[in-house]
Each structure stands twice: as structure tokens, then as C-alpha cells.
Amino acid sequence: MDGGDEEVTAPAGPPQPLDWKFSQVFGERIAGEEVQEVDIISAIEFDKTGDHLATGDRGGRVVLFERTDAKDHGVSRRDLERMDYPISRHPEFRYKTEFQSHEPEFDYLKSLEIEEKINKIRWCQTANSALFLLSTNDKTIKFWKVQEKKVKKISDMNLDPSKAVGNGSVASSSIPKPCLVNGSSFDGSYNNLSNDFVFPPRGLPSLRLPVVTSQETNLVARCRRVYGHAHDYHINSISNNSDGETFISADDLRINLWNLEISSQSFNIVDVKPANMEDLTEVITSAEFHPTHCNMLAYSSSKGLIRLIDLRQSALCDSHTKLFEEPEAPGSRSFFTEIIASISDIKFSKDGRYILSRDYMTLKLWDINMDTGPVATFQVHEYLRPKLCDLYENDSIFDKFECCPSGDGLRVATGSYSNLFRVFGCAPGSTESTTLEANKNPMRRQVQTPSRPSRPLSSITRVVRRGSETPGVDANGSSYDFTTKLLHLAWNPVEKNLIACAAANSLYIELKDKTSLTHSQCIRSTRCSLEIMEWLSQIHEDANLSSFPIVRSLILSRVIMGLWKRKVTINFQEICDHRPKSKELVWMEIGKLSSWRLGFFNLLGE
Prior knowledge:
Helix content: under 10%
Strand order of the largest sheet: 1-30-29-28
Function: The B regulatory subunit may modulate substrate selectivity and catalytic activity, and may also direct the localization of the catalytic enzyme to a particular subcellular compartment.
Radius of gyration: 31 Å
Organism: Hibiscus syriacus (Rose of Sharon)
Family: Belongs to the phosphatase 2A regulatory subunit B family.
GO molecular function, one term: protein phosphatase regulator activity
Oligomer: single chain
CATH topology of the largest domain: Methylamine Dehydrogenase, Chain H
InterPro entries: PP2A_PR55, PP2A_PR55_CS, WD40/YVTN_repeat-like_dom_sf, WD40_repeat_dom_sf, WD40_rpt
Number of strands: 34
């Protein structure tokens, strides 16, 4: 939008549920294909710009993807209206590069095998067009730099083209071979060359200067630093600080603070290890830095607790600033209560106001200013509660599902079984509760759920909103496949309608279909000048705005002024004001004329 455009104040109310569509898939397996263990994706992360996506797998590899569609063509809206320019609607990603981050190791002192599996990936700040990221397995964290390097190709060399070495290439095979001191030609063995190489008596027949014919750009990944020998237990989390200089790593009992530039030492800031291990009652399950306050971080535990700590209080943060805990309902305790209460993942919202946590059965949203309980609770797969015994027997009850909030903070998402994931609306009054499948048809497993009563979500008063419980295909959950689970997913921080999720060795990118706009979405759009005829309001007297399909292309302004006698500037809010008059206003967006001209004039009755 141009700088002069003004925002139209949207009417109060929750956002409309999104209509999710399949966008892309990488590594899709064919029917019956066996998935190799090393190919299963174990980590996924967008960078803060949303233009790069990184995945890690159990084979220790890190694969990078980059966004290829043009988000900004560098021209104003007015210029776009004058150009017959197709606009890319959906974000698209392509494979960028991959590298081997970790190798399998063996701790001979403890007789312990260390897997190469990537547990977490975190992006760091970019510099000089280079990408930086952290990756970790169970014991070792590595700092990677991925940068483009130009490789020159040389031609017109004086050596035998069939024996050229390195990245040099010879343009012509008719180039004479180099001569030795006795006048004979070079036999192609470079070991024969010595310091007594001289020109023949009559000189060389020809001498060519090497010429750079082309330059190839290759991506090179280089390990800048290795942060090791600091954790006795398996690392479950790493998180970058907003200061861009430090990060934390957490294992079951300790959290360490690192400086990116110093790999030889770290500072232990949280230690929950008791003097006697028999007294151990809880372990650390996840840790995350606050997105804006570099002195604050939160970590969760196997007891279902979230602790918020302030690094300014002391060097060893053995006490917390706030403790977030949901009171246990009376009479609800069972053998599985503590197991399913364990929090597997926590995430801060983009503004840092809320904390999103995932335990085995639910997704909870916490206000950091209110520690009496969650402000919203969403049931992810409540239909599995009667099957907890079976899940305990096959160890599925210990699966660690991740969660993620959207960039605008209006929705949250988490995974489930059978490659399903859930999307919930967390805005005040929202009733959105969607079940999607990591598939080319993500809506095929969606079950229509009854709307929840609208309840205000105040930042002061605690209101618990429970997500509608989707019974699934079968109410007892028997039709669900517990061997196919969607543990890892990430929401693009910029594109609020795009989610990347990992199903075994396949990476699916799902997004909301933007090809159709609803009436309420038009009202919330930014102010836009629409070139229309005043007499268009006379057509279809009995029609209303929502009954007409919205034309996705705006007739170019130069064509509009040539075909129409006069124009009227009207914004979206004024369109809504015309609705009571029962007069239809046909309106359009920026785009191409050619594909819509015929249908548009048929609509007008021309």
C-alpha cells in the first residue's frame, strides 16, 4: 500500500476461520515406500523474516529452504495499477542447500552412544548476506554459517585440456601442448614438471593468457564454533536471546547460558539437580527466551509447571519470578495424571505477552501477568483419554508434541496422531477449531464441530475457553494410527496463514486459500481507491454484496479512464454503507485485465 493509504477500523469481533489449502510438499513418499529412520524430520524452524526454513533429521542433516516468490516488487500501488503485472498470491519455497551437521559419536568414558539426530534448530541474526543458525543433538551444539561463494571457471589455458586440473576448463582442444627443454611435448604427467622447465629454442608456437569465462555461485556451510562438554544429560532446548549475543541450552536438570563468540565456557543459570538423585521429582522439559526482554526466560517441567525467571536477580536463578500452574480439579487424579501433565513444549507469543504450552492432552495459553491459571485451554485429542492404558503400553503417552502461535497472535497450532494437526482461534470470542491433515488435501479429515459460545477474553480477568473437542473419525479413537504422529510444526512469523509441518520424512506447507475474500475480510482490508462507474449501483437491485463473486482483478486505471465516462472513488467502508440501499457495487482488485475483461462486460450487460 502507498504511504497515503489509511487503515479502516475493523468491526469488533473474532476473525473468520481460515480455509486451509495445500501449498507444497518436499520429500513426499509414494504408497508403500518404506521410510528410512535417518530421513525422519526431527526439527523445523522459520527464521524471523519468514523467508528461510530449516529442517533437521535423525541422520544429523540440516536442510535449508528459501522463499522464491517476490513479496515486494519495489513499486508503488499506483504504478502497479498502471502495469499489466501478475502478482504472486502464495508464498513458495524451494530447496536451497543441505549439510551434515552432526555425526554419530561414542562416549567411551560412559559407554554411551550419542545419536546424530538433530533435536533443535534456531536461526541467528544474518550478516553480510550470510545465514547463521544453531543446531544441536543430545550433547553438542554447533554454530553454522551458510554463505554463497563464487567459483571462477578458467579457459584458454596452455595445458592439455584432457589433463587440466582443479576447476579450470579449456575452451579448445586444438591448443598446442606445452613443450619441454628438449622440444618434446608435455606427456600429461604433472609430476614430470620441475624447475628446469624452459622455453624451446624457437619459443612456444603460441601462448595464451587464461581467461575467466564464468563464475558459479555455490553455497558453502561452515561450522564456526562447537559448544560441547557442558551437558551431562540430553539437550532438549536451545533458544536465542534478543540481544543477538547469547543463547541458552537446556537439558533435563540444567540450563546453561552461552556467548555466541565463546565456545570454551558457559554459565550454569538454572540447576534443579537435588543433592540426592532419589529426591528428584521433576525435570526440565523446555526452555525459551523472552522475544524482547533479554533478561527474562521461561522453562517448563514434567510436573506441568512453567517458571518465569529474571537473570538480573542472581547469577544462579534458583528462584523464579512467577510460577504458572493450573490447579488440579478435585477427584480427577489418576495413575496417568502426572504423565499427561508433563509439558513438552512452550513458546512465547510474538509480543511476549502470552506463553503457549503443550502437554499430552491439551494446549494452554497463559498470560504472563496472571499466574493463577491459563486464560484458554484447548482440548487437542480428548477422545484418547479412554485409551491412556494402551498409549502407556506402547509408550505413545510419552510423545513430545510441539506447539506454535501465529505471527499475529490470533491462532495457535499443535500436532496429533495420524499426521493430523489442530488450529485453534485464541482471539476474544473466537470459536475456531480446525482439524487438518498433513496431506495434499488437508481438509479431508476435518470434522465440523459445533460453535462454542462467545466469551470475552480480558487481559485482567481470567476466562478459560475450552476448544471444541473433535471426536475424530471414531469416537473411541480406534481409527487413528499412533505410529504416524505429527510432532514438529512451525508457523511462519510473517505470513500469518502459512504453516510448515513434518510428517515422517515429508515436509508439508499448508496455507489459507487467498483466492476468495469474504465480506468481513474486505472491511478489514486497508483503505483502497476503487475506480468504478456511478451507475453500477443501479444493477441488480435485489442483490447484496455478499451474493456476488468478488472479481480478483482490477481493470487497469489507464483502461478504466479510456472506457468509462467518469469515475467515483469509494472505499470498503462506504461499500458497506450502501448495503441497506439494496444496490450492488461491483468492485475489483489489482491484477490483469485480459483474463477478466470478457466476464466483466458480460456482467455489465455491455
